[in-house]
């Protein structure tokens, strides 16, 4: 285990396996050399779920363990793992989808409502005693808007279901057209941004999506546009976003993720109309426990020669 993971995972794995905690070893490199020939599994997690520790499970790291068969990841995103190298070397990779879908979709829609109606700013207004002086200013509305979902996977579909209940029009863009989705499909992200005034970012992180939401996409979103990102901070060009918000290129944003967590650009913090959350998309006791259990269950299934529950394709 190269990073500190939740107690549920640590305790369960200590009962079932011989667990080597790299993150607590006095000399991690020495421990790797000592146990490399025996290690058959790695349990890891994205940094937000591993006490902020960022430890990329690279091909070079996996190559140190000649008997390695599986890398079990805490988190639906697995950009912390070189999954292509793992696949090429017949090493399975698992993640924790499904169990966090509804929680993350709730967070995404909460961010959207907060951003469009400025609820956070309104609460600060009340607490500061300003309501006694005058009413809080009128805000934008969800009425008549179109939601563009960038990444129509499990979470994207869950967000779209919520959007239907709020009367929003829905369009989407993914790497390929989803056969079970009836919403209009846009062939590119730029086409999606032009077709909507709420851009919901739900795609995985990694090199393929780095800075995908750039200045051109933000300009296409327009002056009434709202950006919501609950995916990875790296998907959005943060400098371009700051500039777009400062210049009024878009209306506002709701962000749960950032490019260099937990460091958030001071320019974003200074904007009272932008809603910022500390990466809490799936952060409830119920959901995080379910995610932790899925990490353990994948490893138990592997050990017992059973099919993996949630393998990364």
What does this structure look like?
There is one protein chain. The chain is an alpha/beta fold and 313 residues long. It folds into two domains: 7-98 and 284-303, NAD(P)-binding Rossmann-like Domain (Rossmann fold); 101-276, Rossmann fold (3-Layer(aba) Sandwich). The chain is 36% helix and 12% strand. It has twelve helices and nine strands. Helix 1 (7-16) runs parallel beside helix 12 and helix 5 packs across helix 7. The radius of gyration is 21 Å and the shape is globular. The mean pLDDT is 97.
Please provide the ordered H/E string of secondary-structure elements. HHEHEHEHHEHEHEHEHEHEH
Number of strands: 9
Largest sheet: 6 strands, parallel
Instruction: Please indicate the count of domains.
Output: 2
How do the strands of the widest beta sheet line up side by side? 5-4-6-7-8-9
Radius of gyration: 21 Å
Structural class by secondary-structure content: alpha/beta
N- to C-terminal distance: 23 Å
Q: What's the overall geometry?
A: globular
Low-confidence stretches: none
Which range best describes the helical content: under 10%, 10-25%, 25-40%, 40-55%, 55-70% or over 70%?
25-40%
Percent of residues in β-strands: 5-15%
What would you say the CATH architecture of the largest domain is?
3-Layer(aba) Sandwich
CATH topology-level fold name of the largest domain? Rossmann fold
Write the CATH homologous superfamily of the largest domain: NAD(P)-binding Rossmann-like Domain
Topology, element by element:
Blueprint: H1 7-16, H2 28-35, E1 41-45, H3 59-62, E2 70-74, H4 83-88, E3 92-94, H5 101-117, H6 119-127, E4 146-150, H7 154-165, E5 169-173, H8 189-195, E6 198-201, H9 215-221, E7 226-229, H10 238-247, E8 252-255, H11 266-269, E9 275-276, H12 285-303
Parallel strand pairs: 1-2, 2-3, 4-5, 4-6, 6-7, 7-8, 8-9
Helix pairs in contact: 1-12, 5-7, 8-9
């Amino acid at each position: 285990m190269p990073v500190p993971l939740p107690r549920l995972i640590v305790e369960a794995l200590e009962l079932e396996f011989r667990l080597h905690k790299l993150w607590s070893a006095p000399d991690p490199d020495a421990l790797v050399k000592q146990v490399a020939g025996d290690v058959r599994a790695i349990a890891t997690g994205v940094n937000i779920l591993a006490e902020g520790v960022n430890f990329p499970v690279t091909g070079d790291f996996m190559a140190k363990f000649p008997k390695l068969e599986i890398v079990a990841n805490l988190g639906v995103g697995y950009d912390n793992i070189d999954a292509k190298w793992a696949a090429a070397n017949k090493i399975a990779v698992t993640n924790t989808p499904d169990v966090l879908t509804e929680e993350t979709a709730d967070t995404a829609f909460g961010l959207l409502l907060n951003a469009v109606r400025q609820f956070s700013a309104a609460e600060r207004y009340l607490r500061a005693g300003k309501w006694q002086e005058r009413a809080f200013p009128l805000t934008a509305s969800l009425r008549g808007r179109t939601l563009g979902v960038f990444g129509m996977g499990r979470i994207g579909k869950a967000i779209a279901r919520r959007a239907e209940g709020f009367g929003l029009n829905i369009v989407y863009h993914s790497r390929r057209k989803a056969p079970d989705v009836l919403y209009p499909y846009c062939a590119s992200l730029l086409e999606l941004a032009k077709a909507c005034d709420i851009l919901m970012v739900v795609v995985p992180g990694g090199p393929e999506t780095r800075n995908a939401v750039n200045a051109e996409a933000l300009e296409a979103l327009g002056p009434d546009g709202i950006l919501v990102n609950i995916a990875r901070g790296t998907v959005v060009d943060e400098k371009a976003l700051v500039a777009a918000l400062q210049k009024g290129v878009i209306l506002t944003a709701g962000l749960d993720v950032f490019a260099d967590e937990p460091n958030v650009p001071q320019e974003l913090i200074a904007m009272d109309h932008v809603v910022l959350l500390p990466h809490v998309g799936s952060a409830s006791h119920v959901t995080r426990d379910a995610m932790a259990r899925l990490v353990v269950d994948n490893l138990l299934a592997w050990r017992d020669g059973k099919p993996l529950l949630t393998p990364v394709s």
